[in-house]
């Protein structure tokens, strides 16, 4: 058991508990935030420093086969920045835009992050993912298995069997150790097995006679009937196409009438909105030369429609590695860039496959400069920051190490003006970003990087806040927002968030001044839904039948074995017995 | 014949990259007595797993292997590693993933090089992928959808005996009749036994793969060739092939060492990758290397996630660096650049070129393997280990990237541990040694 700690006199931001920059002590005992600690507690003076809940990243590709494909395909990407040497406490590894497993955990930790979610698990490869999770230290983690192109999903959707679909979701979550339902280009990736894509919600999926609209709706209804903590996590159709803001809004509208579990307001999360809210100039065509920002229009849509949340997928500049379960889009990108193209089909689950293409975002590119404005314009125009999460879709729009830079854009108009000067003129002409006065406060930045993602993931009773009983995941930064005008000093924002003064994971100091001190595992949060016996039995036998018929390996060997999970896993039971058989 | 006391089902076979996981293993009295569903190699692998075993840990003294305790062997191994200036760790492709992870720890601690057997098989494939990418395939997908299958420079009937019967000449969801709805071609320099089972055999002259693939690509792009034949194949036949490939609904190119290790090497793969990429502008095509050792894909994976690089990794500077040709086992040995070797689950003395053998005969080798082989005869230290997937569990990766859990069927011989445990012992002791 680690020693009790008291963080004294820090400037605390804890939006869940309404604390906005108050000087306060935070007490930690046995891995939890507590009301007070005894005299023997270790006193850490954090006077004049900022104290936040540990960072929560709800969408970052940190593990799995597409990441490894990207790592192996692009060794040159590992030498963009200095590698990490082995030390007595830490393993060595590469950095750059993808990182190797150990260094990824260390770098996140040294930036004050304590929880990171992998948002695209091909379920049948769960075993390999768990092996790799073992080698990512210093973080709590969770996995979102993909369901949107899975033939078993399609079977239940086609049959209109929502209970069966809910049962299948539960079965996969148990078998793979998943946390929620990810949907990537539903039907479109499947169509890629036929060399095609599906760009609109009502196009029929080859061989199945069902549509993306039906797939999304069915998965949302099944997820809400189960009451999973995290709503459906959607990467919609038509990603990366000029004018796709209409498709995105149509797909969000498609689930608007679905009642949330126990009356919850939000039933869907839209991920990396920057790639999905491309608009076009008046009387333009859906071509890159006519692209304009849809950030403001999408913010207006969000302000009117309360049933969804979104993360940014903010484009940063420089080399990135695009990797997504959206295989057909990646082929289009390859044809545009003429760079390397990797594609990995995953049998019955992602038949067209994930795509991996290196990409360099350039400030002088008209398209890239407009893409840069979209999420900023959006994030600075929405009313409710609790529904907006800062991400870069690591490593797609840039690595997670660019988060401090992204925060500086959101928190400082001065910084935006400096960067707008470097951009192609379209950044000014085809977005409203230049005229936006708003600057996110520390409180808002804390919501978007801590409290909101925790809430959207359904882990907010324990993560993303510093109230009594919360997990003692804390980050301390050395700047003082009460004395320094951060908006006027954007470099301080970048510097300040690049290295935490302290990172505490489950009550243990794991990093100090950007240097990792300890390398505990963190926990992998998984869900263990309990179905009623009839439904569980029915689905188990049906899924066995389909897996045996469609897959080229044994049903028995499908689940990720306990031996690779049990010691890492924090399995959270979920009573879903009310779903009828 | 007596009935087996115990039958294990759905067991993955740990021989080739197919990792067939439908094997039934019959056990009587702690011994494997029967195998169902496996090919001839699989049967031999399971039924004869106890033959030719290294019986004891041993240390070479005066040209003879003399038995020692496990602790003594581990101590000697640590002594060799600690006094080495440039250590090479090699092999790994015929053991399970946790053993790899321990091996990387040792390499990092000792500042050595770690390389796996892909540097002598599909290393050029990896280089080709690093050049151009790869539209990778998946095996169930092939079974369910492929209407045109090409094996190029591989002889599955001999090397992957169930590949054809399990994945290609078999019905799938959208291929109801695997003989009528699916065509299988073989491209090779000689009429192998596989040639007799396919729908079309294309014979090319040795060393002309690159020209033939490049010509296919040119024809696909609508160029006219100024010659009548390429690699001994009439251009008209190549045109027919291209048309068929373009008109397939879903094609898959399986390729073997005939493509990776013949003249052109990684350039052949680069060209093949680009041909497949080009075909995707018309229809659906993927490709897949016919990985040989059952877990060579796993060795690439584990190395990649821990170090960023799939093979040929050097830790001399305290962090991983990658350079095939520089940090690959054959090159290091041929140049006489290493002064000690830790060999795990491979037999370099049997398979490496002559230039390497000189070095191998001069440097201390720590050999970790279940069985006797050429390398064990040369080794300064031999440590016998359990056979993964028979005597201990673990994880391995199929040729299409699917991870599979390996089962423990029976106990290993007394006192014999899994690779990962032996390597873990070496690491622990070495760590103490390094701290001194």
What can you see in these coordinates?
- The complex is a heterodimer of chains A (581) and B (436).
- Chain A has 581 residues and is an alpha/beta fold.
- Helices cover 31% and strands 22% of the residues of chain A.
- In chain A, helix 12 packs across helix 13 (413-422).
- Chain B is an alpha/beta fold.
- Helix content of chain B is 36%, strand content 22%.
- A nine-stranded mixed sheet of chain B has the order 5-4-20-19-18-6-7-16-17. Chain B has a five-stranded parallel sheet with strand order 11-10-9-14-15.
- In chain B, strand 6, helix 3 and strand 7 form a beta-alpha-beta unit.
- In chain B, helix 2 (70-83) packs across helix 17, helix 3 crosses helix 12 (296-307) and helix 8 (209-220) packs across helix 9 (235-247).
What is the helix tally of chain A? 17
What is the distance, rounded to the nearest whole angstrom, between the alpha carbons of the first and last residues of chain B?
60 Å
Q: Kindly report the greatest chain-chain contact and the residue count on each side.
A: A-B, 66 and 65 residues
Q: Please state roughly what percent of the residues of chain A sit in beta strands, choosing from under 5%, 5-15%, 15-25%, 25-35%, 35-45% or over 45%.
A: 15-25%
Strand order of the largest sheet of chain B: 5-4-20-19-18-6-7-16-17
| Largest sheet entry of chain A | 9 strands, mixed
How would you concisely characterize the structure shown here?
The complex is a heterodimer of chains A (581) and B (436). Chain A is of the alpha/beta class and 581 residues long.
Itemize the secondary structure elements and their pairings.
The complex is a heterodimer of chains A (581) and B (436).
Chain A: E1 5-14, E2 19-29, E3 32-34, E4 42-45, E5 50-53, E6 55-57, H1 65-73, H2 101-110, E7 113-121, H3 126-133, E8 140-145, H4 151-159, H5 162-176, E9 182-184, H6 188-191, H7 212-226, E10 232-235, H8 245-253, E11 268-270, E12 278-280, E13 291-293, H9 295-304, E14 308-311, E15 318-324, H10 327-337, E16 341-346, E17 350-361, H11 366-379, E18 388-389, H12 403-411, H13 413-422, H14 426-429, H15 442-457, E19 474-477, H16 490-498, E20 502-505, E21 508-512, E22 515-516, E23 524-531, H17 533-550, E24 569-576
Parallel strand pairs in A: 1-4, 1-5, 6-7, 7-8, 9-10, 10-11, 11-14, 14-18, 23-24
Antiparallel strand pairs in A: 1-2, 2-3, 5-19, 12-13, 15-17, 16-17, 19-20, 20-21, 21-22
Chain B: E1 6-11, E2 23-28, E3 31-36, H1 40-47, E4 58-61, E5 64-67, H2 70-83, E6 87-91, H3 97-110, E7 113-116, H4 123-132, E8 133-135, H5 139-145, E9 148-152, H6 156-159, H7 163-168, E10 183-188, E11 200-203, H8 209-220, E12 229-230, E13 233-234, H9 235-247, E14 250-255, H10 257-260, H11 266-279, E15 284-289, H12 296-307, E16 313-314, E17 321-322, H13 329-334, E18 340-344, H14 348-351, H15 354-362, E19 365-369, H16 374-378, E20 381-384, E21 394-397, E22 403-406, H17 419-435
Helix pairs in contact in B: 2-17, 3-12, 3-17, 4-11, 8-9, 8-11
């Amino acid at each position: 058991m680690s020693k009790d700690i008291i963080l004294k006199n820090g400037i605390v931001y804890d939006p869940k508990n309404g604390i906005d920059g108050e000087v306060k002590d935070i007490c930690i005992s046995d891995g939890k935030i507590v009301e007070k600690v005894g005299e023997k507690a270790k006193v850490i003076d954090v006077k004049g420093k900022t104290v936040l809940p540990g960072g929560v990243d709800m969408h970052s590709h940190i593990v799995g086969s597409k990441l490894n494909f990207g790592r192996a395909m692009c060794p040159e990407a590992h030498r963009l920045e200095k590698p990490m040497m082995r030390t007595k406490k830490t393993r060595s590894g590469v950095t750059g835009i993808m990182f190797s497993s150990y260094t990824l955990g260390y770098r996140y930790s040294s930036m004050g992050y304590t929880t990171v979610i992998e948002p695209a698990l091909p379920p049948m490869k769960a075993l390999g993912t768990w092996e790799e999770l073992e080698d990512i230290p210093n973080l709590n983690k969770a996995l979102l298995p993909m369901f949107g192109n899975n033939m078993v999903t399609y079977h239940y959707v086609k049959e209109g069997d929502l209970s069966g679909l809910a049962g299948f979701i539960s079965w996969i979550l148990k078998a793979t150790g998943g946390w929620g339902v990810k949907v990537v280009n539903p039907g479109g990736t499947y169509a890629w097995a036929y060399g095609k894509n599906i760009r609109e919600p009502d196009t029929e999926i080859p061989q199945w006679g069902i549509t993306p609209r039906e797939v999304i709706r069915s998965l949302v209804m099944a997820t809400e009937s189960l009451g999973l903590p995290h709503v459906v996590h959607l990467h919609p159709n038509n990603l990366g196409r000029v004018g796709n803001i209409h498709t995105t809004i149509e797909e969000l509208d498609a689930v608007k009438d679905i009642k949330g579990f126990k009356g919850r307001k939000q039933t869907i999360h839209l991920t990396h909105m920057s790639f999905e809210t491309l608009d076009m100039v008046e009387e333009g065509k859906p071509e890159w030369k006519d692209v304009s920002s849809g950030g403001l229009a999408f913010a207006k849509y969000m302000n009117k429609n309360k049933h969804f949340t979104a993360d940014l997928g903010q484009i940063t500049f420089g080399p990135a590695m695009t990797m997504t379960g959206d295989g057909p889009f990646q082929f289009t990108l390859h044809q545009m860039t003429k760079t390397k193209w990797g594609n990995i089909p995953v049998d019955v689950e992602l038949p067209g496959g994930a795509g991996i293409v290196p990409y360099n975002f350039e400030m002088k590119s008209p398209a890239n400069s407009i893409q840069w404005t979209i999420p900023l314009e959006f994030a600075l125009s929405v009313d409710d920051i609790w529904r907006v999460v800062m991400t870069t879709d690591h490593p797609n729009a840039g690595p997670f190490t660019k988060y401090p830079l992204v925060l500086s854009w959101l928190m400082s108009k001065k910084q935006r003006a400096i960067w707008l000067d470097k951009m192609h003129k379209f950044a000014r002409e085809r977005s409203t970003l230049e005229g936006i006065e708003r600057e996110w406060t520390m409180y808002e930045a804390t919501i978007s990087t801590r409290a909101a993602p925790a809430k959207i993931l359904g882990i907010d009773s324990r993560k993303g806040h510093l109230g009594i009983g919360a997990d003692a995941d804390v980050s301390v930064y050395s700047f003082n927002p009460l004395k320094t005008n951060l908006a006027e000093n954007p470099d301080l924002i970048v510097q300040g968030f690049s290295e935490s003064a302290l990172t505490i994971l489950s009550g243990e100091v794991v990093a100090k001044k950007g240097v990792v001190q300890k390398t505990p595992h963190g926990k992998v949060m998984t869900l263990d839904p309990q179905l009623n016996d009839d439904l569980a039995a029915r689905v188990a036998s049906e899924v066995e039948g389909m897996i045996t018929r469609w897959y080229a390996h044994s049903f028995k060997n499908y689940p990720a074995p306990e031996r690779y999970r049990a010691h890492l896993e924090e399995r959270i039971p979920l009573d879903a017995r009310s779903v009828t058989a | 014949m007596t009935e087996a006391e115990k039958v294990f089902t759905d067991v993955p076979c740990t021989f080739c990259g197919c990792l067939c996981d439908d094997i039934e293993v019959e056990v009587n009295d702690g011994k494997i007595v029967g195998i169902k569903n496996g090919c001839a190699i699989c049967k031999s692998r399971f039924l004869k797993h106890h033959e030719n075993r290294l019986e004891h840990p041993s240390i070479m003294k005066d040209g003879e292997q003399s038995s020692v305790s496990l602790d003594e062997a581990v101590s000697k191994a640590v002594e060799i590693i600690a006094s080495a200036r440039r250590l090479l760790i090699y092999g790994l492709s015929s053991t399970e993933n946790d053993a790899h992870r321990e091996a990387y720890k040792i390499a990092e601690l000792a500042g050595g090089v770690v390389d796996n057997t892909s540097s002598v098989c599909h290393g050029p494939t990896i280089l080709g992928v690093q050049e151009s990418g790869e539209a990778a395939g998946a095996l169930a997908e092939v079974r369910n959808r492929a209407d045109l299958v090409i094996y190029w420079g591989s002889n599955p009937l001999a090397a992957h005996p169930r590949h054809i019967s399990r994945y290609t000449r078999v019905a799938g969801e959208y291929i109801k009749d695997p003989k009528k709805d699916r065509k299988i071609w073989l491209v090779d320099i000689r009429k192998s036994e596989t040639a007799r089972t396919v729908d079309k055999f294309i014979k090319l002259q040795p060393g002309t793969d690159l020209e033939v693939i490049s010509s296919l690509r040119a024809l696909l792009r609508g160029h006219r060739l100024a010659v009548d034949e390429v690699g001994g194949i009439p251009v008209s036949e190549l045109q027919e092939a291209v048309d068929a490939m373009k008109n397939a609904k879903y094609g898959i190119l399986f390729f073997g060492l005939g493509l990776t290790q013949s003249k052109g090497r990684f350039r052949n793969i680069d060209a093949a990758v680009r041909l497949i990429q080009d075909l995707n502008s018309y229809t659906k095509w993927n490709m897949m290397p016919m990985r040989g050792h059952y877990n060579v894909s796993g060795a690439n994976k584990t190395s990649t996630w821990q170090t960023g690089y799939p093979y040929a990794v050097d830790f001399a500077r305290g962090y991983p660096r990658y350079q095939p040709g520089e940090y690959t086992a054959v090159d290091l040995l041929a140049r006489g650049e290493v002064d000690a070797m830790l060999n795990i689950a491979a037999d370099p003395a049997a398979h490496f070129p002559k230039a390497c053998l000189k070095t191998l005969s001069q440097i201390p080798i720590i050999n970790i393997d279940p069985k006797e082989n050429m390398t064990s005869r040369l080794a300064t230290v031999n440590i016998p280990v359990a056979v993964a997937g028979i005597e201990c569990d673990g994880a391995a990766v199929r040729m299409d990237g699917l991870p599979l859990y390996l089962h423990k069927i029976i106990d290993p011989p007394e006192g014999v541990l899994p690779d990962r445990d032996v390597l873990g012992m070496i690491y622990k002791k070495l760590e103490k040694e390094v701290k001194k």
